[in-house]
Write a structure and sequence with these properties.
The complex is a heterodimer of chains A (214) and B (331). Chain A has a single domain, classed as Serine Threonine Protein Phosphatase 5, Tetratricopeptide repeat (Alpha Horseshoe). In chain A, 71% of the residues lie in helices and 3% in strands. A two-stranded antiparallel sheet of chain A has the order 1-2. In chain A, α2 packs across α3 and α2 packs antiparallel against α9. Chain A is globular. Chain B is an alpha/beta fold and 331 residues long. Chain B folds into two domains: 173 residues, Rossmann fold (3-Layer(aba) Sandwich); 146 residues, Dihydroxyacetone kinase, domain 2 (Hypothetical Protein Tm841, Chain: A,domain 3, 2-Layer Sandwich), CATH 3.30.1180. In chain B, strands 1-2-4-3-5-6 form a six-stranded mixed β-sheet, with helices on both faces. Chain B has a six-stranded mixed β-sheet with strand order 9-8-7-12-10-11. In chain B, β5, α3 and β6 form a beta-alpha-beta unit. The longest helix of chain B has 17 residues. The chains are: A mainly alpha (214), B alpha/beta (331). Chains A and B meet through α4 and α5 of A and α3 of B.
């Protein structure tokens, strides 16, 4: 069955599942960040997404923009470091572009995610190959868009995005970091997966999983 | 880990309680983690706001007061504060003449301050920004997040604070800030790592007979690890890269010999003597000196050298009265 829309409940489930995944993977993310950063990515993402889900449970969003703007502001105010503004900006832009609706169709979701990526680029000034979350986000959204050209089924598009995200994540291992604290390591940053790329891959894993469950 | 704390989780909150108790001339917003002057910003005076992760004391909270900052936002240890803190602090200190944000060049700090400035702009407050990036230890600055903000931040907060106190407008105050940043260079050395309370163990291991040259203020790696040497040789390794980066001849300079938190003052003076010998030999005029712990990395042993190429105006602003917990003269 082709599923060409995604509901507010499903999008809420996406954020909750993302919270679960970063919580399960907290040690892995922190381990990656110990190698080339300051060893706080796992705890920062767990704390931030924990706050997001608490907020949603306390006062469920009535519209898609409310959901994502709330998530974005919560991340911005609770995380600090670089991941707070980057993930926060991503969700704020997703919310603004999605608008006050209860459901998104496939092109609507694609446009919202694309706006999120543009926000991350505007905030972090990262380019392809800098060894950042961009190296997962950009190819995942390209795969999402490409899949929609073939079929309007959101769950297969999300599956394609997750697959591209994993490839992008693994490809950061060979890259030389040019942004963030890891960039000061120069050649020593090579041989480690970027922690932001790893957590962004979990974001697409979460989307793919909640859509498959339906 | 041996530290005088109640628990790693409460270090920041507990220290802010101490700041409030010790300094009746300051106010502490314990919810938003902002230190600001008790007296409201004088009408027409540009306000100065800085902030960053804690663990660098007295920077920034210790530099809030007459002649320096109007407010400082405190993040967790070595972690940037968040935009809502910057927004709140900007609102508290703005007198209508605008607010200068002084940001050290670290990815997290830059992004969080940028979002804070955007939020403040939405409320109609005019904000300008200076990003301090003076660490010559970072060599490939075009291929990295750029030079880090270190010692020059202290000199900048003092000098620009005096410019604001004199009643210069936001554009003029910002111009002085940019001039100081462009004219200041720093380089540091670590003899030991630091211990972040929440980590409970040293960030890196440095053997007894080695030092890390070009270290930052967060226990991040430096340019290279070399055998420990005497003060004269260490001074040479710190000063030479600074002099190679900027021509300091023909102008009065302000020189800071800064301790990173775990080095006694007597050693800082030994180091300062060696730095002066090198500068004298290089024909550089030292007009003002500052020796002590001003921008630290918790309990790291080591020091940094900052040299600022000044002019009559910067020296005049440097000499102006200042009354803060961390820097006080002319009062």
């Amino acid at each position: 069955m082709v599923n060409d829309t995604i509901s507010l409940d499903q999008l809420t489930g996406w954020l909750t599942r993302f919270r679960d995944l970063v919580t399960e993977q907290v040690s892995y993310l922190t381990e990656l960040d110990s190698a080339i950063g300051d060893a706080d990515h796992g705890s920062n993402m767990t704390r931030g997404m924990g706050a997001v889900v608490e907020r949603i449970q306390a006062s469920p969003a009535g519209t898609v923009d409310e959901l994502f703007k709330g998530a974005g502001m919560t991340l911005v105010t609770s995380v600090g470091g670089a991941s707070g503004p980057l993930y926060g900006t991503f969700f704020l832009r997703v919310g603004t572009t999605a608008g006050p609706v209860g459901t998104l169709d496939a092109p609507g979701l694609a446009a919202a995610l694309r706006a999120g990526l543009d926000g991350v680029v505007a905030r972090g000034k990262a380019e392809a190959g800098d060894k950042t979350m961009f190296d997962v986000l950009a190819p995942a959204l390209d795969a999402f868009d490409d899949a929609l050209l073939v079929s309007s089924d959101i769950s297969s598009a999300a599956g394609a995005a997750y697959s591209a995200a994993q490839t992008g994540r693994d490809a950061t291992e060979a890259l030389l970091a040019r942004k963030g604290r890891a960039s000061y390591l120069g050649e020593r940053s090579i041989g480690h997966i970027d922690p932001g790329a790893a957590s962004t891959s979990l974001l697409f894993q979460a989307l793919a999983e909640i859509l498959v469950k339906e | 880990m041996k530290k005088l704390i109640n628990s790693p989780e409460t270090v920041l909150a507990d220290s802010l309680v101490g700041v409030a108790a010790a300094h009746p001339e300051l106010r502490v917003d314990h919810v938003n983690r902002i230190i600001y002057r008790a007296a409201p910003t004088r009408a027409g005076k540009v306000a100065l706001l800085s902030g960053g992760g804690t663990g660098h004391e007295p920077l920034h909270g210790g530099f809030v007061g007459v002649g320096m900052l109007d407010a400082a936002c405190a993040g967790a240890v070595f972690t940037s504060p968040t935009p809502d803190q910057m927004l709140e602090a900007t609102k508290v200190v703005d007198s209508g003449a605008g607010v200068l944000h002084i940001v050290k060049n670290y990815t997290g700090d830059v992004m969080n301050f940028e979002m804070g400035a955007e939020l403040a702009a939405e409320t109609g407050i005019v904000v300008s920004v200076v990003v301090v990036n003076d660490d010559v230890a970072v060599e490939d600055s075009t291929f990295t997040a750029g030079r880090r903000g270190v010692g020059t931040t202290v000199l900048l907060e003092k000098i620009v604070g005096a410019a604001a106190e004199e009643g210069r407008d936001l554009a003029a105050v910002t111009a002085v800030a940019r001039q100081v940043n462009e004219s200041g260079r720093s380089m540091g050395v670590a003899l030991s790592s630091c211990t972040v309370p929440s980590a409970g163990k040293p960030t890196f291991e440095l053997p007894e007979n080695e030092m890390e040259i070009g270290v930052g203020i967060h226990g991040e790696p430096g340019r290279r690890r070399v055998p420990l040497a005497g003060a004269a040789e260490v001074a040479r390794q710190l000063v030479e890269p600074i002099l190679a980066d900027l021509d300091f001849t023909g102008a009065p300079t302000i020189v800071m010999l800064n301790g990173l938190g775990g080095t006694p003052l007597i050693e800082l003076y030994v180091m300062y003597a060696e730095v002066r010998k090198i500068l004298d030999a290089a024909g550089i005029t030292v007009a003002r000196s500052l020796v002590g712990n001003y921008i630290t990395a918790l309990d790291m042993a080591g020091c940094s050298v900052t040299i600022l190429k000044a002019d009559d105006d910067l020296l005049h602003l440097w000499d102006a009265p200042v009354n803060t917990a961390g820097l006080r003269w002319g009062i």
